[in-house]
Design brief:
The complex is a heterodimer. By secondary structure, chain A is an alpha+beta fold. Helix content of chain A is 18%, strand content 40%. Chain A has a six-stranded mixed β-sheet with strand order 2-3-1-4-5-6, sandwiched between helices. Chain A has a six-stranded antiparallel beta barrel with strand order 7-8-14-11-10-15. Chain A has a six-stranded antiparallel β-barrel with strand order 16-22-19-18-23-24. Chain A is globular. By secondary structure, chain B is of the alpha/beta class. Chain B has a six-stranded mixed β-sheet with strand order 3-2-1-4-6-5. Chain B has a two-stranded antiparallel sheet with strand order 7-8. The longest helix of chain B has 20 residues. Chain B is globular, with a radius of gyration of 18 Å. The chains are: A alpha+beta, B alpha/beta. At the A-B interface, helix 2, strand 2, helix 4, strand 7 and strand 8 of A face helix 1 and helix 2 of B.
Chain lengths: 404, 274
């Protein structure tokens, strides 16, 4: 199984080191890279660091912090992992979101020395908002607290409280005491932690389950091509299955047609599954980029208003402001009709109701008024329940659809 | 990811680029990765690549690369654009001028001149995250300013599959003017994936230099003076796939420009290198 894991947490709690250790212990690092890093460490007069496998910018080494997100791949005996490191500094939340948006599961890294810190909370809030419900906790730097159980329990209690405040169910979340530096409880059982009888990190990750919920068909239109004199609507099946002969409604254009043929280069298909990039031939015209197709049983509906929760990465966003909303391949004008709640993205606390504006790093529940566009409840069809906000050609925020 | 997933995502990216930009082009070195990207373009557009294919010619490529280029360009009916920095080539720039200068003048500047001439607003490139730590930090859609600079400290938000097309001349709030956007359709592939895909597809042509001859083969193709082969007995695609499953040698170990100095790749890329 392919599993995409993101490591989140506060700066200096050891995310990059932990990933470096996972790569090293799974024997995924090329010899040459190890030598290169040994040379680097000498040049910078530092000790050999596993984090150097990930932090490739010269600035990252000089500043001793991760600036940009990076994804690496490794295999365990059971799964194939893409593992994403994100910066733990508030300045780089944009890069954290970029990295975390692809993840199936999150590992929250918390230092046993420092416990819960600002980005521990903010990252967890954002992980929850992005709909990543499988979370693991790695209490790191156990070597620095002499592998003491009491310290682990203290930090565990702190984290549990934060998790509960963000409505994660703590009973099923594994808490693993680890030392990324020494490699304890990551691949091998931890020395000095005989009191811990739970799973190692890799054992916990290997048990990840991805239950696929059956979802209705949503086919997102990217473009219209003319192939050998035939009009072909190209796009991707975001959810469900599309079969030849299906009656499909495309919204917001309102085109209604039978799927005459399903085309890929060099052949034709009887059906296309979730994730497939395909072309369809239909008998009607009017379909446009940005349209979403679905069957009559559970059709996509064009909306002109919806409630979303978003996080802002720009200086300010005001009630009444006009922006571009992107969802699937749709790009439509939208207006911030009302800001229901301004939320502290670190604590989840509601700071203000119906404010006139929100500020950088605030989260908010917002009522959007839009040109007709297909958006779905994030809880039902996440692929079309998430959006990006664009202002002057720049992505300034992202969020999920709470209600339509 | 399965080969099917990898391919689906790449085709989605290629179609997004084609929908979002007015005048895109794809870069082709004739190597395995960019030939795979061309093949994915053919799949995305049902056989014909609807935009030009650029080959940056430093004059130092292997003869067998030129022969391969001309043969496949003909077979696939490409609109091939050859980019050469004639002035620099005449003035004698070469590996002896220093690798940094040579790569910058003959590759990066040749590309700049070509973009100037044709006005391309998007370039499809076959870089992959697993090739090099610096390339791992890339976005799928990555804007460049008029000096071709890659502002790696302030990269755009790129969540889910929402790729932000930065249009020519569009000014960011900080006053940066974009000349083109780099589009990376196989950023998420690994070297092994590329070979397994070539094996599966059967119709992707492969330069013979990748196959072992007298105990060595090329694992990555570049300019003749700066590219060396690795020890290998892999004479078939199957043998290469097998070799890659077990090797601990880095893919670009035979590429001199990556290694001359620490962070050379970062510096080259910050100046617009691929």
């Amino acid at each position: 199984m392919n599993v995409h894991v993101v490591l989140v947490g506060h700066i200096d709690h050891g995310k990059s080191t932990l990933i470096g250790r996972l790569l090293y212990d799974s024997e995924s690092v090329k010899d040459e890279r190890v030598e290169e890093i040994q040379k680097l460490a000498e040049e910078y007069k530092r000790r050999f660091e596993f984090a150097y496998f990930l932090d490739s910018f010269e600035d990252e080494l000089k500043e001793e912090r991760t600036i940009d997100t990076v994804s690496l791949m490794f295999k365990s005996t059971k799964n194939f992992y893409t593992i994403t490191d994100v910066p733990g500094h508030k300045e780089f939340i944009k890069n954290m979101l970029t990295g975390a948006s692809h993840a199936d599961v999150a590992v929250l890294v918390v230092s046993a020395l420092e416990g819960v810190q600002e980005q521990t909370r903010r990252h967890l809030f954002l992980v929850k908002m992005l709909g990543i419900n499988q979370v693991f906790v790695a209490v790191n730097k156990m070597d620095a607290v002499a592998y003491k159980r009491e310290q682990f329990e203290t930090v565990k209690k702190q984290i549990s409280e934060v998790l509960r405040s963000f409505t994660f169910g703590t009973d099923t979340i594994p808490f693993i005491p680890v030392s990324a530096l020494e490699g304890e409880n990551i691949y091998r059982r931890g020395k000095g932690m005989e009191w811990y009888e739970g799973l190692t990190l890799i054992e916990a990750l290997d048990r990840v389950n991805r239950s696929e919920v059956k979802k209705p068909l949503r086919f997102v239109v990217q473009d219209l091509y003319e192939v050998e004199g035939e009009k072909v609507v190209v796009g991707r099946v975001e959810s469900g299955t599309l079969r030849r002969g299906d009656h499909v409604i495309f919204e917001p254009s309102g085109t209604n047609s039978e799927i005459a043929r399903l085309r890929v280069f060099g052949s034709e298909l009887e059906e296309a599954m979730t994730g497939d990039s395909i072309g369809v031939v239909i008998n009607e015209s009017g379909v446009q980029r940005g349209d979403v197709g679905g069957t009559i049983v559970n059709p996509p509906l064009p909306r002109q208003e919806f409630l979303g929760e978003a996080v802002l990465l720009d200086k300010k966003l005001e009630r009444g402001e006009r922006l571009e909303l992107r969802c699937g391949t749709a790009r439509v004008g939208c207006e911030i009709k009302e800001i229901h709640e301004r939320i502290n993205s670190e604590t989840g606390e509601v700071l203000e109701r119906y404010p006139a504006e929100i500020h950088e790093h605030d989260a908010a529940t917002i009522l959007f008024a839009t040109k007709p566009v297909v958006v779905e409840h994030f809880a039902d069809i996440p692929e079309l329940g998430r959006f990006v906000l664009v202002k002057n050609g720049r992505s300034i925020g992202a969020g999920v659809v709470l209600d339509v | 990811m399965s080969l099917k997933d990898l391919e689906n995502k790449s085709i989605y990216i290629i179609r997004e680029a084609y929908a979002e930009f007015e005048n895109p082009a794809v870069l082709w070195s004739t190597g395995k990765d960019s030939t795979t990207v061309l093949w994915l373009c053919r799949k995305a557009f049902f056989g014909t690549i609807p935009f030009p294919v650029i080959h940056i010619d430093t004059g130092y490529k292997f003869k067998r690369m030129y022969a391969f280029r001309d043969r496949i360009a003909e077979e696939w009916g490409m609109d091939l654009v050859i980019a050469r920095n004639e002035a620099a080539m005449k003035s004698g720039v070469g590996p002896k001028s220093g690798k940094f200068e040579c790569c910058t003048k003959l590759k990066t500047e040749a590309l700049m001149q070509c973009l100037d001439k044709y006005g391309f607003d998007a370039l499809l490139l076959a870089i992959r995250r697993d090739e090099h730590g610096i390339r791992a930090k890339e976005r799928v859609f990555s804007p460049r300013d008029k000096e071709f600079k890659w502002n790696y400290r302030d990269q755009p938000l790129e969540m889910w599959d929402q790729y932000q097309a930065h249009h020519q001349g569009e000014s960011e709030t900080d006053g940066t003017v974009h000349t083109h956007t780099r589009v990376h359709p196989i950023l998420h592939w690994r070297e092994l994936d590329v070979w397994e895909y070539i094996k599966q597809e059967e119709k992707i042509p492969v330069n013979e230099m990748y196959f072992a001859n007298a105990g060595t083969r090329y694992r990555s193709l570049g300019c003749e003076p700066c590219t060396s082969p690795i020890e290998s007995n892999a004479q078939t695609i199957d043998a290469i796939v097998e070799e890659l499953r077990t090797t601990k040698i880095a893919e670009r170990s035979g590429r001199a420009q990556d290694k001359e100095k620490m962070f050379m790749m970062q510096k080259l890329r910050a100046l617009g290198y691929m």
